[in-house]
Specification:
The chain is mostly beta strands. The protein folds into three domains: 61 residues, SH3 type barrels; 61 residues, Beta Barrel (OB fold (Dihydrolipoamide Acetyltransferase, E2P)); 58 residues, OB fold (Dihydrolipoamide Acetyltransferase, E2P) (Beta Barrel), CATH 2.40.50.140. The chain is 0% helix and 54% strand. The protein contains no helices and 16 strands. The protein has a six-stranded antiparallel sheet, with no helix packed on it. Strand 10 and strand 11 form a beta hairpin.
């Protein structure tokens, strides 16, 4: 058990029978009345961020979570198969726990967040950016880089990404896994 004095960004607590991480907090001592702590809590399962206020000194249940590196092996229906590179143990995760399942390619290294008390996976996070090869897009146009016009491109994971008009089949692009947006073209 910890109190609000122990709050820090990234701390994982149990709140309303769910796991939340503290994204932001502020201790407030008004001129009149009791002190309190204003927080923004992110649900580790749904990713929803909600504001909450705790009275100063209230006890909270701190939970331990671990980030473990895993390698993506293959997909079978809605189940994704991963392997721990150190112990070679395999684990299976449903697609709803993965932040960008459509951008994940075989042998991709990801981090799986585990609740250490119950040894259950909470979420699976890809790196911030992944490099993917464009397998199909309409032909590009030379010199058309001044406008912000976008077209659809199919990448090697079968995901559709909006890219600038100058991207061609065979180009390797960097995609932001948090938003699914095109970031830049990677030089070969």
């Amino acid at each position: 058990m910890a109190s609000t004095a122990d709050f820090k960004n990234g701390l994982v607590i149990e709140y309303n029978n769910d796991l939340y991480t503290i994204v932001e907090f502020q201790h407030v001592k008004p001129g009149k009345g009791a002190a309190f702590v204003r927080t923004k809590l992110k649900n580790l399962k749904t990713g929803k961020v909600l504001p909450n206020t705790f009275p100063a000194g209230v006890k909270v249940n701190v939970q331990r979570v671990e980030r473990r590196p895993y390698q993506f092996l293959y997909k079978e229906g809605d189940t994704f198969h991963f392997m721990n590179n150190e112990t070679f143990e395999q684990t299976f995760i449903q697609h709803d726990l993965i932040n960008a399942p459509d951008l994940m390619k075989e042998n991709q290294v990801v981090e799986i967040l585990y609740h250490t008390e119950t040894e259950t996976p909470i979420s699976c996070e890809l790196p911030a950016y992944v490099e993917l090869k464009v397998t199909y897009t309409e032909p590009g146009e030379k010199g058309n880089t001044a406008t912000n016009a976008l077209k659809e491109a199919k990448v090697e994971t079968d995901a559709i990404v909006k890219v600038p008009l100058f991207i061609n089949i065979g180009d390797i692009i960097k995609v932001d896994t948090r938003t699914g947006d095109y970031s830049e073209r990677v030089n070969k």
